[in-house]
């Protein structure tokens, strides 16, 4: 975890230049740790708030992204890396939707670790449905390449730009899109692919029924849809 105040070391007795980064040996440490004879090759190395080049050695990074205006900078840098984020609310649908939109692993943390498991049935139930959905359609939403909004244009029914959607490209070149609605009212949007692909159908996280995506896509309040 790199939340501490000490970023550089100026001790001249350590054998390094003054002002050397405190965490400069993080990657080297993990690479040496992996050579330990008793460490299983199945062991996952993870850290909190890993920065970009640490992901050469770390397999998962944990952070917190609870803002509606969250910018998935690490996902831009590492489209296929494993990132985990905290989901803390009593019915935290918006954070579950964010996990779907940015391919984040869910860390269930009732009330910032101060709550009880009994506070969390709604959040866990919705999260399980989300994970089942993206596992079933992992071709796009687990194994596909995260493209931010590149490749598709999503606008609201009134023509305003929609800001909360993500494009995933499968190995065969086909696109899948996640559109989240963080608001307390339903949203109506239109979606079009830049490459001419016709999006044929969409469904919500909770409702397995498919609907046609050739015109208006309606997203219930605090919900998300996948479009393929």
- Spans of at least 5 consecutive residues whose pLDDT stays below 50 are none
- Summed up, the helix count is 5
Number of domains: 2
Average pLDDT works out at 93
Strand content: 25-35%
Please state the oligomeric state of the protein chains shown: single chain
Helix coverage percent: 10-25%
How far is the N terminus from the C terminus?
Answer: 38 Å
Give the strand line-up of the largest sheet: 7-9-10-15-12-13
Number of strands: 15
> What characteristic shape results from the CA principal axes?
elongated
Give the helix/strand class. alpha+beta
Largest sheet: 6 strands, antiparallel
What sequence of helices (H) and strands (E) makes up the elements?
EEHEEHEHEHHEEEEEEEEE
Gyration radius, rounded: 20 Å
Q: Would you mind describing this structure in some detail?
A:
The protein is an alpha+beta fold and 228 residues long. The protein has 2 domains: 134 residues, no CATH class; 83 residues, Immunoglobulin-like. The protein contains 5 helices and 15 strands. The protein has a 6-stranded antiparallel beta sheet with strand order 7-9-10-15-12-13, covered by helices on one side. Strands 3-4-5-6 form a 4-stranded parallel beta sheet. Helix 3 packs parallel to helix 4. The mean pLDDT is 93.
Structural topology:
Elements: E1 8-9, E2 20-21, H1 26-33, E3 46-48, E4 60-63, H2 73-77, E5 82-87, H3 93-102, E6 104-108, H4 121-136, H5 138-141, E7 145-146, E8 152-156, E9 165-169, E10 175-181, E11 187-193, E12 201-204, E13 211-212, E14 217-219, E15 223-227
Helix pairs in contact: 3-4
């Amino acid at each position: 975890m790199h939340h501490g105040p000490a970023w550089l070391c100026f001790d001249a007795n350590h054998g390094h230049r003054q002002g050397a980064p405190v965490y400069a040996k993080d990657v080297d440490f993990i690479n040496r740790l992996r050579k330990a004879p008793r460490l299983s090759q199945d062991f996952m190395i993870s850290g909190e708030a890993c920065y970009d080049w640490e992901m050469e050695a770390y397999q998962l990074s944990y952070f917190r992204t609870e803002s509606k205006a969250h910018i998935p900078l690490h996902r831009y840098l590492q489209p296929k890396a494993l990132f985990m984020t905290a989901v803390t609310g009593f019915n935290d649908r918006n954070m579950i939707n964010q996990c779907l939109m940015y391919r984040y692993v869910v860390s269930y943390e009732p009330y910032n670790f101060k709550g009880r498991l009994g506070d969390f049935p709604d959040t866990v139930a919705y999260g399980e449905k989300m994970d089942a959905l993206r596992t079933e359609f992992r071709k796009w939403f687990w194994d596909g390449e995260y493209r931010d909004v590149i490749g598709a244009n999503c606008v609201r029914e009134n023509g305003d730009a929609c800001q909360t959607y993500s494009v995933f490209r499968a190995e065969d070149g086909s696109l899948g899109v996640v559109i989240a609605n963080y608001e307390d009212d339903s949203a109506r949007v239109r979606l079009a692919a830049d490459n001419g692909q016709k999006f044929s159908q969409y469904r919500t996280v909770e409702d397995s029924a498919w609907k046609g995506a050739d015109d208006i896509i309606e997203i219930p309040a605090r919900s998300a849809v996948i479009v393929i």
